[in-house]
Specification:
alpha+beta, 340 residues, 27% strand, 10 helices, single chain
C-alpha cells in the first residue's frame, strides 16, 4: 500500500531524501518531467491537452520529529524538537540518523522525581535519548550533532476503515497527488512535493517565487479532535465526514470564489466534505498566495487525530473522497474560476 510505504519512510525537515525517492519511483511513468531544486523540493510536470488553466498540486514530504543537538559524557543524546509536544515524548521509541540507530527517549524515573516535578510538565531540556552507549566517544561513532530523529510507529489498519501511522501529515497529501497524477486530466499539472514545511514553510517559500500557475490546490493532513469532552466547535474536523476545506488559517485567507467553486463541485457530484472549524496552524498556501504575483489557493485536507505526534489516525474514506473531489474540481470547476 502506497500510504504505508510513505508513512514508514523517514523524512524530517532537511532530510526528506528517502520519501522523495519513493515518490519519484511512483510518478516517473506518469509525468513528462521531474526535477529537484536546491532546497530539495520535488517538482513534476504533466502536460495536458488544454494549456489553461495551469493547476499546481502541492503537499509536503517532511514530518515532525527531533534533531540531535548534543552528545553527553554518558553517551546519551540531547535533542531539539520540530513541532512535537514535549509531554508525549518520554519512553517513545526512535530512530536516529541515516543509519536509523534505535533509541528511546528517557527522563528521570517517577520514583526519583520531587513532588513539584511530578505536578509539572517535564521540560524538553531534561530529556535525553538512550541509544545504548556508555560513553560520548562510543556514541560519536554512531551519531552526530544535526542528525534527525524519527519516531517508530507501525502502520496499522483497524476498526472501521481507520489507519494509524506516523507522518500522515502530510504523506496523505503526497499519496493523494501521486494517485491524481496517474489519472488522465485535461489540463497541465505541476505537482509539488515540498521540503521543510514543518520548519516554517521554507521549501514552498523559495519555490513560490518562481512558480507559474493559475491556482494551487494545497493538500494536507489536518487537526481532528472529535472526541467526547471536547466542545463541538473545538473539534475542528470529524473523521469519516469527508475532506475538509479551509476558510482561513495563520498563514492564509482563502479567496471565497475558489472555495465556492469547489463546494459547488462537491455538491453537484455528491462528494461529502466539511469545513475546517479553526484558524489555527498554517500551510504552504501561506507561501503561494503571497509569492510572485500571488497565486490563488484552495486548502483541502484529510482529518487526522493526534496530529504532530508519533502516531495519527485517519479514515480511509476521507482520503478517497479528497482524491475524488480534487479530480472532479479539475474536470468540472477549475476552468470557470482559474482563468483561460
Amino acid at each position: 500500500m502506497l500510504l504505508e510505504k510513505l508513512t514508514t519512510a523517514c523524512g524530517l525537515p532537511g532530510f526528506e531524501d528517502e520519501v522523495r525517492e519513493i515518490i519519484e519511483a511512483e510518478i516517473k511513468d506518469h509525468v513528462d518531467s521531474t526535477k529537484v531544486d536546491r532546497m530539495g523540493n520535488l517538482i513534476a510536470y504533466k502536460k495536458g491537452k488544454k494549456k489553461s488553466p495551469h493547476i499546481a498540486l502541492s503537499a509536503h514530504m517532511d514530518e515532525v520529529g527531533l534533531c540531535i543537538i548534543g552528545i553527553e559524557r554518558d553517551g546519551t543524546l540531547k535533542f531539539a524538537s520540530w513541532g512535537v509536544d514535549a509531554r508525549i515524548l518520554p519512553s517513545m521509541h526512535v530512530l536516529v540518523g541515516k543509519d536509523k540507530i534505535p533509541g528511546v527517549v528517557g527522563n528521570k524515573p517517577i520514583h526519583l522525581q520531587r513532588e513539584a516535578e511530578r505536578r509539572s510538565v517535564y521540560e524538553l531540556e531534561a530529556m535525553y535519548i538512550d541509544i545504548g552507549c556508555e560513553t560520548k566517544e562510543e556514541a560519536e561513532k554512531l551519531v552526530s550533532k544535526g542528525d534527525f530523529v524519527a519516531f517508530v510507529s507501525e502502520f496499522t489498519e483497524f476498526g472501521e476503515n481507520l489507519i494509524k501511522a506516523k507522518a500522515l501529515d502530510d504523506r496523505v497529501g503526497c499519496t493523494a497527488i501521486i494517485e491524481l497524477l496517474k489519472e488522465e486530466l485535461p489540463y497541465s499539472i505541476t505537482a509539488i512535493f515540498c521540503v521543510q514545511e514543518e520548519a516554517g514553510l521554507r521549501g514552498s517559500a523559495m519555490l513560490a517565487k518562481r512558480l507559474e500557475a493559475d491556482i494551487v490546490i494545497n493538500i494536507e493532513g489536518t487537526i481532528c479532535a472529535d472526541m467526547d469532552g471536547i466542545d463541538e466547535d473545538k473539534q475542528v474536523t470529524n473523521l469519516g465526514a469527508g475532506p475538509c476545506l479551509s476558510l482561513l488559517d495563520r498563514s492564509s485567507v482563502y479567496q471565497k470564489k475558489y472555495l465556492q467553486a469547489i463546494v459547488k463541485v462537491a455538491e453537484d457530484e455528491g462528494i461529502p466534505f466539511q469545513y475546517r472549524r479553526s484558524g489555527m496552524g498554517g500551510t504552504d498556501s501561506g507561501s503561494y498566495h503571497t509569492g510572485g504575483a500571488g497565486i490563488p489557493c484552495i486548502g483541502i485536507a484529510v482529518p487526522c487525530r493526534y496530529i504532530h505526534s508519533p502516531v495519527s489516525v485517519m479514515h480511509k474514506s476521507d482520503m478517497e473522497n479528497l482524491i475524488k473531489l480534487v479530480k472532479a474540481f479539475i474536470l468540472n470547476g477549475a476552468e470557470r474560476v482559474a482563468g483561460k
